Amino acid sequence: MGSSTGPGGKKARGIVAMGLKQGDVVQELGWDSDVDESLRDAIMDAIDAEMVDDPLEAVDAVLLWWRDDDGDLVDGLVDALRDLGEAGCVWLMTPKVGRAGYVDAADINEASATAGLSLANPVKVSDDWLAQKVVRPRSGRR
């Protein structure tokens, strides 16, 4: 099977769809040995920097790796907002259907609503992981 990370590949298109660009500060939460390292590398290439885990300033995006057994997703989403700038978003990374740790879409919808957040369309970025954009609702901003 060929690589999907080259020009025009799934990961390259996914990073573009995520809107991450050079100079963005991205916080990474929930990293473990099962994450897609080539996706992480593609993100760091796009932002031309390492991702941070304990930022000194507000971040442009949070990459939140989440599995079914990671606990309460509402708490995870609320925690992800702690260092997020007002215009930023959370990229919720969950294993795809059939993969270990899969999180049901209904659970993601419910957790997002309970946390007072809105979901955007998912982005295909990896063979094993799905990226779901989570944002503060515009009507809730003051």
Commentary on this structure:
This protein has 142 residues and is an alpha/beta fold. It has helices spanning 10-18, 37-47, 73-80, 105-114, and strands at residues 26-29, 59-65, 84-95, 118-124, 129-135. Strands 1-2-3-5-4 form a 5-stranded mixed β-sheet, sandwiched between helices. Strand 4 (118-124) and strand 5 form a beta hairpin. The radius of gyration is 14 Å and the shape is globular.
Q: If you compute it from the alpha carbons, what radius of gyration comes out, rounded to the nearest whole angstrom?
A: 14 Å
Choose one word for the global shape: globular
Helix percentage: 25-40%
- Number of distinct helices: 4
* Poorly predicted regions: 1-7
The CA-CA distance between the termini, in Å, is: 49 Å
* Strand and helix order: HEHEHEHEE
Number of strands: 5
**For the report, how would you describe the main beta sheet?**
5 strands, mixed
Category from helices, strands and their pairing: alpha/beta
Strand content: 25-35%
Q: In which order are the strands of the major sheet placed?
A: 1-2-3-5-4
For the residues shown, what is the average pLDDT? Answer: 89
Q: What is the topology?
A:
Elements: H1 10-18, E1 26-29, H2 37-47, E2 59-65, H3 73-80, E3 84-95, H4 105-114, E4 118-124, E5 129-135
Parallel strand pairs: 1-2, 2-3
Antiparallel strand pairs: 3-5, 4-5
